[in-house]
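Why do we bother with holo predictions? Because pocket geometry can differ from the apo form. Keep that in mind while you read this record for guanosine-5'-triphosphate.
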Amino acid sequence: MGVLWNRMMHAVKSSDVVLEVVDARAPLSTRSEKLEKLVEKMGKELVVIINKIDISDEKLVGEAHKEIMKTKPCIFISARQKQGISHIKKMINMHAPKNKGNIKVSVAGYPNTGKSSVINYLSGRHAAGVAPVPGHTRGEQWIRVNSQIMLLDTPGVVPFGENIDITQGFGRPEKMKHIEDSTDEFIKTVAAAKYNNIKELYKLTDEDLAREDIISVIAKKRGLVIKGGKPDLKRAAQTIILDWNTGKIRAFVD
Ligand SMILES: Nc1nc2c(ncn2[C@@H]2O[C@H](COP(=O)(O)OP(=O)(O)OP(=O)(O)O)[C@@H](O)[C@H]2O)c(=O)[nH]1
Ligand SMILES: [Mg+2]
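The structure, written out:
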């Protein structure tokens, strides 16, 4: 984390504008207070980009957008559906220093929020690697969008001390310790959220949703069992996290 954070400081220092990409399924809890403070301290401009609106609820995202706008410029987009590109370019031009020929923009935020996808969308080509695996981007990379704008892709960073859970794209499922426990808590949070597709996605009844062991119900529905017919909680948890990371789970969690 220390090394990554140093690199983040360097990225911010070498930029005119920072785009902070957050996940529209949890726009408030995927904001990084430390990143925002760092940008402010360095006297740079920050724009919050709420990405993945295609897998969240429009009205609830609209409310979160209003909330964020109280303190920061903010727009909502879908990199996957290619919605919002003109807004991003307008925002970059509005917040860049006037009459600057070469505007440098770093794209930052928590893992898996879609930073590399936003860059590919803006540059119109597959310039940055994208994967449903948090921690996919490992090194910084400058990518030219046009004669005026250059973007810096950065690895997803959760600053030390910030609240980490899997709604913040934390962890590769196969590497997470105690994955059953954290996923159990996570799936209950998502199932209780104002907007979610858990019921349809895992074919659950209302009774299933109310159960304490919802994860074992999901395991059984998916045929994930171990010897003796017991539900395979580990594989069920891995499936759920993968479904979150790939966007099969639609939700609004904040
Ligand atoms: N539904 C949906 N999925 C998206 C969108 N943008 C990105 N994704 C998906 O989110 C996952 C992560 O995307 P990346 O662009 O690799 O995210 P990142 O923030 O660069 O991730 P790291 O480099 O690991 O920090 C991929 O599976 C993308 O296809 C979007 O607008 N909508
Ligand atoms: Mg990336």
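Residues 115-116, 136-137, 153 surround magnesium ion (ligand 2) (CB under 6 Å).
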